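=== RUN LOG ===
request id: a7f3
mode: sequence -> structure
chains: 1
length: 278
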Amino acid sequence: MSGDEWVVAAPHPALRPIVVRYLGYARHEAAPALHRGLPSRHVTLAISLVDPMRVVGAPGSGRPPTRPQGVLGGMHTSPALIAQQGHLCGVHVELHPLGLRALFGCSSAELSEQVIDLADLGSRFAALPPRLAATPDWRGRFTVLDEVLLERFTGATDLAPELAFAWRRMLATGGTIRVAQLAGEIGWSRRHLGEVFRREVGLSPKQAARVLRFERAGNLLRRGTRMNLADLAAVCGYSDQSHLTNEWRALAGCSPGTWIAEELPFLQYDTGTPAAGS
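=== RESULT ===
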């Protein structure tokens, strides 16, 4: 079999306060030996439908799981390193970091800078990878995900509206809004915003803003946007190209040039719109 598959689907409507989308993929051609799971705005549930994952480097200081079939990764400020070889096939579930207790019984803060083996989340999640692998098509796999996640979803997020507003503003500005301005807009002190934000998300507002600027730069590169790194830095809120490069090394573990050469040719950018019929 040749060629790659990439399928995007929306979750069940009841899950959408927490679940952003499902991504199914299959790669039958050569892939880079090392994949960098980059920091982003999402908490990510990742499941391999073939061989177990080889997590060779995890964010934070903790040891990565040993050959997991699936993982739950919190928001992070350094890359998760995955060794790859042969045929790849799996599912990613992108999750909002706010209100995660309604699905997993823990906050995003408790998952921050961690990669957790799916088997440690209970028998239903431990049984999910083989169940998905035994399902013959993407539509059926996404239906299984809906079923399992709906069983866990309580529907109660219990978030301060000021925090939800602050997060939306950070997303809308690509992480370029100043924390002091954001605190003023919601009527909180900068200190109080930092405390509440870190308690729920696990990162400080400043750290989250770094991740959002980095994510925006990566998305523009995936789209094939034609601009040099100096212009990219200016568009994404960096002081100059050197600032962009230093941040990329810190958050991706390599320079922008290395990532572009090693991984960008193997990545597919999508608009976030679910595939027809998925």
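=== NOTES ===
The domain at 4-152 is CATH 2.60.120 (Jelly Rolls).
The two ends are 22 Å apart (CA to CA).
=== END ===
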